[in-house]
Amino acid sequence: MKKAPPHRAASAPARAKSANKLDKLHGVVRLLQEHNTSVRVCGTVSQITPGYYGISGLEKHVCIGDCIELDVMRPYGRGPARAEVIRIDEGKVYAKPYSQHLDVGIGTRVMRMGPVQLSPDNSWLGRVIDSLGRPIDNRGMLVPGRLSVSLEGDPPPAMERSMIEKPIRTGVRAIDLFTPLCVGQRIGVFAGSGVGKSTLLAMLASALDFEVVVVALVGERGREVREFIEGTLGEALTKSVVVVATGDESPMMRRQAPKTAMAIAEHFRDQGLSVLMIMDSATRFAQAARDVAMASGEPAVARGYTPSVFSELPRLLERAGPGRVPEHESEPCGAITGIFSVLVDGDDHNDPVADSIRGILDGHIVLDRAIADQGRYPAIDVLSSVSRMANKAWNKNEAQLIMKLKSMITRYEETRDLRLLGGYTKGADAELDHAMLLIPSIYDILCQTPHEMVPANEIDDPFRELSDALTAKEIKD
């Protein structure tokens, strides 16, 4: 039997050659680290459905929420298209594309890009962008900021947040009287379709005096985008950033738009600025989140909505509000004042999404179709609307006056049918007689059109206007 040759130590030239290769490898690693880059892991498309793509070869290298890049055919030649990982199984990854029309085939190459991030910058003021932070206003590329932030940011810890103290005037008399707002508050505008949500948001956007305005138009009609930007914001666009995902875009884009807008708002809040965040609408964000969750195989539990929708809503809405307490008293405290519209399905204000959002926010403004049918705009139901920060804005006398007015309005509305049928004789109830005298005048005062809005620095005290009008009415009668 032939003996094995004895082990011999590597020669000096061989050891030097091996060490040289190792040094080169370390040099490549250092170069990658210095340039903040990483080796891209590739996979291939192995399954195609109308709602998602199945991808093989990436299951050990991605996480839920990671962005991937597909090398697809486009009208202008080959180019990358993005998708997001929504489910991971053994041997396969499921991803939903941001674009609805991609020429993807079996075997299309896919590369991992990592978590979706954004780099906001102060130069973005005055710009209109899409859900992925790409400009759509034909004004050139955006300048990226120095820091990249996650679109899934966390709100400040509860015990480190500032207190809400400062009231603000909106210029909308019905809101300033019955549901006053404060800086850092989050409030919802609840209404069915065609009752005036977007118009009321436009009135608030043009009246409120903030240092920065961030607008998320989610699932809106395409024709309304320029109307809102040029007609509503107007000159205020110079201090605004508008994020647009119209109704014809994919659920991924509609789900991403509010997160992109919130990340931008947090960028300015962290600089100590007072930011107004307007989202129209939160319901369409919930619907888009439902579509994505159902594509991942999640079952529906409440009127077609999946459980993850009711966890995504508070994660998003809680990011608005006051910022952290500043380290020094001289430093400004940034805050995000949030106004979110909620489309009430079938005028049912107790549908799951509306009910969930109402419990998260710091108040709700309810628009009633019956009031709109009477020609009273904004069609705010002052009896159903609530501001949880009202006590920060009212003084003692104003709070007592509003409670008394609400009592009178309730009495007036409860007896409307009785009075129309002739079942009430004037003089039988002194309080009702007083309500019948004053409530029509109060309704007239609350009526307001967008053209009647005044600049923030010219907004008068609504209580003085109400007092003068009611006094004049009593003297006249």
From TrEMBL:
Q: What CDD domains has UniProt attached to this entry?
A: ATPase_flagellum-secretory_path_III
Q: What is its EC number?
A: 7.1.2.2
- Asked if Protein transport is a keyword of the record, the answer is yes
Domain AAA+ ATPase positions:
183-372
The alphabetical list of record keywords is: ATP synthesis, ATP-binding, Bacterial flagellum biogenesis, Bacterial flagellum protein export, Cytoplasm, Hydrogen ion transport, Hydrolase, Ion transport, Nucleotide-binding, Protein transport, Translocase, Transport
> Which example biological process does GO assign this protein?
protein secretion by the type III secretion system
Pfam families noted in UniProt: ATP-synt_ab, T3SS_ATPase_C
Q: Give the family from UniProt.
A: Belongs to the ATPase alpha/beta chains family.
Q: Quote the protein name from its UniProt record.
A: Flagellum-specific ATP synthase
| Organism listed in the record | Cohaesibacter celericrescens
**Phylogenetic placement of the source organism:** Bacteria, Pseudomonadati, Pseudomonadota, Alphaproteobacteria, Hyphomicrobiales
Corresponding gene? fliI
